[in-house]
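Just wondering, can you check both lines?
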Amino acid sequence: MLSSAASIKSTPAANAAAASFAALTARLDYLSAADIESIRQAYRFADEAHLGQLRNSGEPYITHPIAVAQQCAEWKLDAQALMAALLHDAIEDCGVTKPELIKRFGAPVAELVDGLTKLEKLEFNTREENQAESFRKMLLAMARDVRVILVKLADRTHNMRTLDDAPRDKWTRISRETLDIYAPIAHRLGLNTTYRELQELSFRHLHPWRYTTLSKALLRARGRRRDAIKRVQSDVESAFVNAGIPIRMDGREKTLYSIYRKMDQKHLSFAQVTDIYGFRIIVQKLTTCYTAMGVLHQLFKPLPGKFKDYIAIPKVNGYQSLHTTLVGPFGTNIEFQIRTEAMHVVAESGVAAHWLYKATDPESDASKKMGTQWLQSLLDIQQETGDAAEFWDHVKVDLYPDAVYVFTPKSQIRAMPRGATIVDFAYAIHSDVGHRAVAAKVNGEQVPLRSELHNGDVIEVITAPTSSPNPGWLGFVRTGKARSKIRQYLKTIALKELQNLGEKMLAQALRAEGINREHLSEDDETHHLRWEKILRFTGNRSRADLLADIALGKRVASIIAKRIVTLLAESGEKPDALLMSRERYTAHESVSQGALVLDGSEGASVQFATCCRPIPGDSIVGYLGRGEGLFVHTDDCAVARRLQQRDSERFIAVDWSDEPVRAFETNLLVTVANGKGVLARVAAALASVEADITHVDMRQEPAQDATDLRFQVAVRDRVHLAAALRSVKHTPSVLRVQRAKSAE
C-alpha cells in the first residue's frame, strides 16, 4: 500500500488514549526491568510536578511528556533519555531545581533535562543576539550529547501534532521556526520520517488553503493513477519471484510540502509534477541491491541521468540506498529506492539508529559515527567563533546540505555541500592546508581556488609555507568551517598588524616629546607599573588593546605620549631636549610629532587610498579614521584636502621607508588610436619594464578613432612608474599616457 504523510492529524481523544503510561511501558520491551522501574519513578515524579496543569486542549499536562517519551521509545533511546523526556518541563514549569534532579535521578539525567530546559522557550523568529546565543547553546549541547536534540525533536513533533489546540496567532511563528530550524536539523541527523512529518505539519499550519487544495488534487490523482500503480506493483513483485529474490516492497508517496516546493521553485502546475509516486525495495543483502536494480531495469526503461548510488558513496548523514527512476506504464515516472533492512532503519531514523542497533545488538557500532562528523564540526566552529550571531551564520550554511562527492589524490571520498569550492575542500582536509593553499588541480588540470566542486572530481591542493588566507575568500566559501577558520586567522593577523602600527605611532609621538622608544617596553617592574597607570587612564584592558586602539584612531598617540611624560616626570625623568627639537619641527606644520615611516609591510592596518593611489616617492599624509585605521593619501589629493579642512586634528605625518618591501598600485590613463592588437602592444610595453597589470578597464563606448584605456599597475616607486610611462608612450598607436591621480 502507498503511504503518505499528507493526512497527518490528531484528536484530543486519540492523544489522551495514546499518551498513557501503560501505552509507554508497552514499548519498553527492549529495556531491562531496572531501567523500566527508573522510568516509572521519573513518570511519578513528573506526574506529581505537573499536577493540576492542563494543555490547551484541556488534557492533563502529563500527556505531553508521555507522548515525547513514546517517540523516544520508538527510536529505542536509552533509559536516561526517556527519563529526561518525561522530566523535560519539570525545571521550567514546575520550579524543580537541577540539584534536586541530580539527587533523585543522577547527574546524566539532570544534565539532559537542563540542556532541554535551555531550549524550551527559544524563539528563532528574529536575529537578535539572545536568540543566536540560545541557538548556539542548543547546538553545542547537541554536539556533546545528541540525545538532547533527539528529545527536543520528539518534543517539537508532538507540539506540532497538537498545534491545532494552540491559539491561531502562534501558528505562523511556531511553524516557521519548525520549518527553518528543527526540520533541517532532523534531516541533517538522518531522521527522515521526523523530517517529513515536521515539514508537512508546518506547511499545513503556515498555508492551510494551499495544503487543502493540494490534498484534494493528490486524492484525485491517486484515484486516476490507482490502476497504473497496482500494475507496476504486481509486475515488480512477479519479476522478483521469477528471479528468485525475496523482497519487501513498500509504496511511497511524495509529501504535500515537497510537491508544493517543487511547484513553487520550478514554476510547475500540479499536473506537471510527474514523480509523485515511488517504491522502496527492501532486500536481504548488500550485493542483492545491485542485482535487484538489474531486475528493475529489465522490466522498465530507466530514465537517463536519474540513477544515484548512495551505497558506494553514502550521504553525509549516513543514508544509503540505490535510487533509479523508471518510465512506468502510461509514461508515468516512478522512483525506486533499493536498500537492505539495516539501510532502511538508518534511512528513516538516522542518528537514532545507533540506539535501535544497540537495542538488538549491544556490541554493534554500525551507526555510532553517523552525524558525529557534523556534530564535531560544531565544536570546531565554536572554538573559532566568539560572536553568537556569526556562529549561527556559519551553522545555517551546513544545515541545508546538498552534497557533492569528491576524491583526494589518494582516492579518499569527501562529501561537501553543493556549491563548495577548492578552498572549502582544503579546510575540510585540515586548517593548515586551507591557510597555506595557493593553487589547485582538479582532475590533473590547474584551476582557480574559487572553482566549484563537482561529483567525482579528484582534488589536489597545492600549498606554500609563506601563504596565508585571502580576505576575498570569504566572498565565495560555502562551509561554516572554512568561513570561521578564515575569519579567525584574519582577526588574529589584523590584530597583530594593528598593534605593530600602534607601537610605531606611539614611538613617534614619544620621540616628539623627547622620550626614547625604550619606555614602551614592559620588561621591568617600573615600566610595568607605569603601564598599569596608563591603562587605568585610557580604560583599556591591556597594553596590546591600547596599541590597537591607537592604530584604529580610537586613542590619540600624542595624548598618551604626554601622559607618559607626566608619569616619567613624577619619577624624576626628564625629556631629551635635543631629541625633542629634532623630532618636533618637521615639514608637516599641522602635526606635533615626527613622521611615521611606511614600507608596505603594515598589512590591513594601513590602507593606501584608492582615490589617489600613492606610491613611494609621492609626498604623502596620513588620516586616522575613527575606528577604521590609517589611510594614506598623496598630499595634493582632493579628498585628503577636504578631510583636512573638516578634521585636521586627525592627520599625522607619514613618510616612505628608503626600502619599501612590496609594489604599490596606481592608475594609468592611456589614449590609443583604435586598431588591431593595440591592447596587446600596451600590455607588452608594461611587461617589458616589469610593471604588473592588476586591472584593465575599457569603458562601454561606441567605436571611435581614439579610445581611453584605464590600467591599474603595480610599481615599486615613482622612478619605476616613469619607466613604465616612457615605455608605453613609445608604443605605436599610443597617443597619450598619464598617471590618473584620482579614480574615475
In short: Residues 2-204 form a domain with the Hypothetical protein af1432 fold (CATH 1.10.3210.10). The chain has a mean pLDDT of 78.
